[in-house]
Design a protein that fits this description.
Elements lengths: L2 H5 L9 E3 L2 H9 L3 E8 L2 E14 L7 E3 L2 E5 L5 E5 L5 E6 L2 E7 L8 H24 L8
Parallel strand pairs: 3-5
Antiparallel strand pairs: 1-6, 2-3, 2-8, 4-5, 6-7, 7-8
Length: 144
């Protein structure tokens, strides 16, 4: 196989690996629903809890927010994402000395899927309502 063939090969990750592409990071994170999170700074726990991933995006002006059992994740705030399955499924969002570790808590195979979807829809409606209110307020973001 030529060297150029290896360079153009599309990556395939199964149950573990490191992801640098923002689009792939978004695809992994958007599949999450309810998670346990741990915010580690220099391997020291700064915060932990449980919540729902309600929004995943990539832009240069919105923060990643974890508050009130809701996670709004901006992948542009992280250098890369690491997935692993042993001993349990874990996603690490890594940025310098900070790691936001997410552990999925829901398995659609073991729970009532319609109840989960209703809860997620309620969370997303609440966020959409809040964003509508935010749009009515003049917020000046710094130019990119």
């Amino acid at each position: 196989m030529k060297n150029t063939d290896l360079e153009e090969q599309i990556v395939c990750l199964v149950d573990y690996g490191i992801i640098h592409a923002k689009r792939d990071m978004i695809r992994i994170l958007r599949d999450l629903d309810r998670v346990e999170y741990v915010d580690l700074i220099d391997n020291i726990t700064a915060a932990k809890g449980e919540g729902y991933v309600v929004e995943v995006y990539a832009n240069s002006y919105d923060s990643t927010l974890i508050f009130n059992q809701r996670l709004h994740i901006n992948v542009n705030g992280f250098d890369f994402l690491k997935i692993s399955s042993v001993p349990a499924k874990v996603i690490d969002l890594i940025s310098g000395h900070r790691v936001v570790r997410l552990k999925p808590l829901l398995s659609l195979h073991n729970t009532n899927q319609s109840a989960i979807e209703e809860e997620i829809d309620e969370q997303r409606l609440a966020i959409a309502s809040q964003m509508a209110c935010d749009n009515e307020v003049d917020i000046d973001y710094p130019a990119d």
